């Protein structure tokens, strides 16, 4: 059996595209059915231990007010910033440059406090 010629195939395709009134229409999928609803749920955040707080805010349970909070962080120049400042000063660098460690967050201690009750939670020392 030979395949149909180009003219026969295009005639058959045009009949299929135009539609055949004797053929039943395909079923409608939207009649009588409500659209499905997708519910996306996220897991509840798990608080970390207060002692494991580092230099960024963390989600913890305050030991004072027992509330789940994200800690407030205040950066204060600690011993590593002051020691670096003194070492740079001893090296004889211009005094302005020896003060740079006091302005860098990466050299400062992070003091965590509770936003609810305001009490100190933890100090992360560098």
Short characterization:
With 126 residues, the protein is α+β, with helices and mostly antiparallel strands.
Descriptive report:
- 23% of the residues lie in helices and 18% in strands.
- The protein has helices spanning 6-18, 79-90, 95-98, and strands at 59-61, 68-70, 72-77, 108-113, 120-124.
- It has 126 residues and is α+β, with helices and mostly antiparallel strands.
- The model has no long low-confidence stretch (mean pLDDT 81).
- The longest helix has 13 residues, at 6-18.
- A three-stranded antiparallel β-sheet has the order 3-4-5. Strands 1-2 form a two-stranded antiparallel ribbon.
- It is elongated, with a radius of gyration of 36 Å.
- It is built from three helices and five strands; from the N terminus they run H-E-E-E-H-H-E-E.
- One of its GO terms (cellular component) is nucleus.
- GO terms for molecular function: zinc ion binding.
- Residues 42-126 form the LITAF domain.
- It is a peripheral membrane protein.
- It holds the Pfam family zf-LITAF-like.
**Overall 3D geometry?**
elongated
Mean pLDDT: 81
Structure annotation, total helices: 3
Helix amount: 10-25%
Q: State which percent range the strand residues make up.
A: 15-25%
- Largest beta sheet, briefly? 3 strands, antiparallel
Low-confidence stretches: none
Rg value: 36 Å
How widely separated are the two ends?
85 Å
**Strand line-up across the major sheet:** 3-4-5
Order of helices and strands: HEEEHHEE
Please count the beta strands (DSSP E, at least 2 residues each). 5
SSE-based structural type: alpha+beta
Subcellular location: Endosome membrane; Late endosome membrane; Lysosome membrane
Membrane topology: Peripheral membrane protein
Protein name: Lipopolysaccharide-induced tumor necrosis factor-alpha factor homolog
InterPro entries: LITAF, LITAF_fam
């Amino acid at each position: 059996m030979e395949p149909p010629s180009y003219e026969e195939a295009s005639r058959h395709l045009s009949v299929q595209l135009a539609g055949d009134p004797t053929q039943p229409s395909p079923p409608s999928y939207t009649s009588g059915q409500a659209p499905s609803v997708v519910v996306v749920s996220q897991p509840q955040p798990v608080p970390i231990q207060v002692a494991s707080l580092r230099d960024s805010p963390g989600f913890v349970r305050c030991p004072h007010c027992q509330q789940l909070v994200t800690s407030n962080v205040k950066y204060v120049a600690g011993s590593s910033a002051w020691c670096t400042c003194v070492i740079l000063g001893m090296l004889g660098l211009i005094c302005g440059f020896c003060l740079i460690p006091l302005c860098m967050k990466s050299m400062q201690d992070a003091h965590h406090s509770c936003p609810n009750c305001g009490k100190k939670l933890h100090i992360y020392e560098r």
